[in-house]
Design a protein that fits this description.
The protein is of the alpha/beta class and 320 residues long. The protein has two domains: 2-204, Formyl transferase, N-terminal domain (Rossmann fold), CATH 3.40.50.170; 209-306, Formyl transferase, C-terminal domain (Methionyl-tRNA Fmet Formyltransferase, Chain A, domain 2, Roll), CATH 3.10.25.10. Helices cover 24% and strands 29% of the residues. It has eight helices and 17 strands. It has helices spanning 10-22, 51-58, 74-81, 97-100, 123-129, 165-185, 220-229, 301-306, and strands at 2-7, 29-35, 39-41, 46-48, 63-65, 85-89, 107-111, 119-120, 134-141, 151-158, 203-204, 236-240, 243-253, 266-271, 274-280, 285-293, 298-300. The longest helix has 21 residues, at 165-185.
Length: 320
């Protein structure tokens, strides 16, 4: 079987890496990899190619960088037409019909949600942020509308209450590869697809910068979900005086009573058993396990607390 792959981020890298192992028995060949152009990343705005590009070069795959999902050169059309399937995971472009119609048996999308819930750019993050108890992976045949194609199979995955994006992404990538292994072993004339229920469709909008700053007046449970959903990238943040701090791996403090303080006020404690970096919220309190100062590395709560020079009341969110 002749397959191709299209992707651009770390989730798609996990899929491509796993596919490489799946096809190592010679049952299929990876004759084409598509990715998107390099982008300026980080505070230094360094031009960085996608992880798919780096991996493909290392493994001597034929790789093409395209600047549009609608129009491609004729020579690339010929290559895609030679494919049995083009497998797509977190590509970054919406593919037009002129590309979707080229592979012999269509373009197959690996989507990390239980479709039709959470169509769109950020399904893993939005599932955590919304407090969903269960998510999963859907493998669909792609159509012209975003993530709306008919479904081959869905496998569900429970979301643990303190799962971060990184945790859940790894679980869903593993499930995706198990599904793809089964899919590629199934003769194409035995594969059937079922339409999605359009009435149940919801959309996972792209993460934008103005939603990253923490509002400590919100309930602790909602803030924890947001912190975990956006860790390790792009990350939520707050301010301590004039310093911006990124937050990672939080959990709600349950079954504990404290004197109520203004939202954003820190409760700091340290003993032989460990350290506690807790924050008062609009309702309830949360515990922060990881924090990153500007231009610094991630550090745990104990290391952060060790940097305090006095015991005066500290409030997150204030920017002098």
């Amino acid at each position: 079987m002749n397959i191709g792959f299209a992707g651009s981020d770390n989730f798609s890298l996990k899929i491509l890496s796993g596919l490489t192992e799946i096809i190592a028995d010679g049952s299929s060949s990876m004759s084409l990899v598509l990715t998107i152009p390099a982008k300026n990343q980080g505070r230094g705005k360094i031009l960085t190619e996608t992880p798919i590009s780096s991996f493909s070069k290392k493994n001597s795959f034929f790789i093409e960088t395209i600047v549009s999902g609608r129009h491609i050169v004729d020579s690339l059309k010929d290559r895609i037409s030679d494919l049995d399937y083009l497998i797509v995971a977190s590509f970054g472009y919406i593919l037009g019909e002129s590309i979707l119609s080229l592979p012999k048996h269509g373009c197959i999308n690996v989507h990390p949600s239980i479709l039709p819930r959470w169509r769109g750019a950020a399904p893993i993050q939005r599932a955590i942020e919304a407090g969903d108890k269960v998510t999963g992976v859907s493998i669909i045949k792609m159509g012209s509308n975003l993530d709306a194609g008919p479904i081959w199979s869905i496998v569900k995955q429970e979301i643990d209450k303190n799962d971060t994006y990184a945790d859940l992404e790894a679980k869903l990538a593993k499930i995706s590869l198990q599904m793809l292994k089964k899919f590629l072993k199934t003769p194409h004339d035995k594969i059937t697809y079922n339409p999605q229920n359009e009435k149940k469709a919801t959309y996972a909008k792209k993460i934008i910068s103005n939603e990253l700053k923490i509002d400590w007046t919100q309930p602790a449970v909602e803030i924890v979900r947001k912190i975990n959903a956006l860790y390790p990238k792009p990350c939520t943040y707050t301010y301590l005086n004039d310093r911006r701090l990124k937050l990672g791996k939080a959990e709600v403090l349950e079954h504990q009573k404290f004197f109520k303080k203004a939202p954003g006020t820190l409760l700091v404690s340290k003993d032989r058993k460990g350290a506690l970096l807790a924050v008062h919220c609009g309702s309830g309190m949360l515990k922060i396990n990881l924090i990153q100062k500007e231009s610094g590395n991630w550090i745990d709560a104990k290391s952060f607390i060790n940097g305090f020079k006095n015991s005066s009341e500290i409030v997150f969110g204030r920017k002098i």
